[in-house]
């Protein structure tokens, strides 16, 4: 399972969407640490993406920044073609980029629905559609899609977000069935409450309320998610596909 260098992902080419911050940054660092050349995608926050790359390189990993909007099919296709033109392949796709635009349903505008679905769900379609062309030819690929605990539990104020994340689960399972014969594994991970920019605006009272419902007694960190993702794309998970792996401290069972 390990390569001669002792790094499990040596020689692999990876793309992490939304790798500039939070969970995506931790995943990019982890994959690069395991030996993958890691493309770090972002949409507008170049400074944060550069910081991810600095951390990657500081730990002896290799990677490059790659800016595109996951909701723009042509931009995604061009970016992934660029990766394969340069590196000859794309082995690992982590569909992590996502946004929340929370509001109670009666105040939710159709534009909000479109925005959240376009980035969170169509973004995953766009990246999978572009990368699987190459993975099918290679007869090897690993795709991890970032869903959420609220895809299953639902949440007040998150109709659009939880719908987008529930859609990712259906996409993941159907794609796993289609691509299994080509040795492409497609899985989803469903984090609970993870401390990132996405959750930073939740006040102490709200945080305490959630923590009270978590059997492990704490909120999660980006590293809690990154370790599981690194496992799922490694040789130790070669027989896992079409699954949703929950990383939530027991918040939802
Ligand atoms: P975050 O800190 O807000 O980071 C979001 C990332 O997505 C950034 O890198 C951002 O890039 C990128 N992004 C946003 N829109 C994009 C677009 N149109 N195209 C390309 N990249 C885009 O979020 P996070 O908490 O790490 O969340 C990462 C993923 O985990 C998301 O899919 C989220 O839904 C999911 N998740 C998070 C939690 C949680 O508690 N935090 C729980 C469950 C699931 P820029 O820096 O350029 O803006």
Describe this structure as you would to a colleague.
The chain is globular and about 50 Å long. It has 253 residues and is α/β, with parallel strands linked by helices. It has helices spanning 22-33, 46-58, 73-87, 110-138, 150-153, 159-179, 204-212, 222-232; strands at 13-16, 37-42, 62-67, 92-95, 141-146, 184-191, 244-247. The chain has a seven-stranded parallel sheet, sandwiched between helices. The structure holds NADP nicotinamide-adenine-dinucleotide phosphate. The site of NADP nicotinamide-adenine-dinucleotide phosphate (NAP) has 30 residues, from helix 1 and strand 2. NADP nicotinamide-adenine-dinucleotide phosphate is lined by residues 17-18, 20-24, 41-45, 48, 69-71, 96-99, 119, 146, 148, 191, 193-194, 196-199.
Q: Report the end-to-end length measured between terminal Cα atoms.
A: 31 Å
Mean pLDDT: 97
Q: Structural class, from helix and strand content?
A: alpha/beta
By DSSP (H or I, 4+ residues per run), the number of helices equals 8
Ligands (ions, cofactors included): NADP nicotinamide-adenine-dinucleotide phosphate
Largest sheet: 7 strands, parallel
* Global Rg: 17 Å
- The H/E string reads EHEHEHEHEHHEHHE
Beta strands, count:
7
Which residues form runs of ≥5 with pLDDT under 50? none
Note the main attributes of this structure.
7 strands; 8 helices; binds NADP nicotinamide-adenine-dinucleotide phosphate; alpha/beta; seven-stranded parallel sheet
